[in-house]
Amino acid sequence: MALYNFKTTADDIAADCSDIIRGKVILTTGVTPGGMEQPLLKQCEETAKAIKSASPGVSTRVLELDLGSLEQTRRAAAEVNSYPEPIDVLCNNAGVMVTPYNLTKDGLETQFAVNHFGHFLFTNLIMQKLLASSSGARIVNVSSDGHRLGPVRFDDWRWDGGKTYDRWRAYGQGKTANILFAPGLAKRLGNKHNGQDVVAVSLHPGVVGSNLTRYMGDEEYQALRKMDRDLGFAEYWGSIENRLKNASEGAATHVYAAFDPSLKEHNGAYLVDSQIHPVEKVRPWARDPIEADMLWKLSEEIVGQKFTY
Question: Does residue 165 have an active-site annotation?
């Protein structure tokens, strides 16, 4: 029987891993507790204040990171590289969901840019900070069971200038990329620091109410229901109420991914409900090592930089 499950909370796992967590330096993208009507930096500052209030001994920094801009992502990475301490855990948590078709100033479709390309560039640019971790670093990519909605469209990832664009399939593409990024990192960075692996994993946090769903009205929900029926994913045909998690339950797999020591033996894994998800339940396009290598190559081409380890 698994130690953790659907109802496990972040506090449960934090208590179990308290000795491991103590003293760690953690960098998390997408820390935005309020609604989008607030400026993002203000939201981050509120998060920092909440952390300080709950744990006065914990120091925090606020980093401006716009994953939709390769130029600004490079500036943010340079700022991180100027920090005096190493990074023990990087949690690539930021994302957008089912946005209307739009291009970033780099000419990239927004969901793919923010959910994958930005994180790919940022992670690799601060890699020396991660490699400097004395305990072996963790890289956590927050994906989704929405990866079921589609693979990376290597021949049409630009959606033919919007002509073939589908919000849900574009979301699926980005979430598939988040999963494939983890084994790509594990392959290149395992056993790179004094015999200790850099452990990279991906996860589905569960269905948690957040501002991530701000672009979703009834039309988008109905489109998702239809797509799941068309694709034959019967487990998603029922009420979403049965799959909802509260905030602490939704954060549990993040904590498990970042700190559970057993994951050192499962580099590149995909996690659900604070467990390693059975590989047969991961869609084939999200667990193909060839597609992971193809994505790494495409990502290097897009960001205009090669990363060799």
Answer: yes
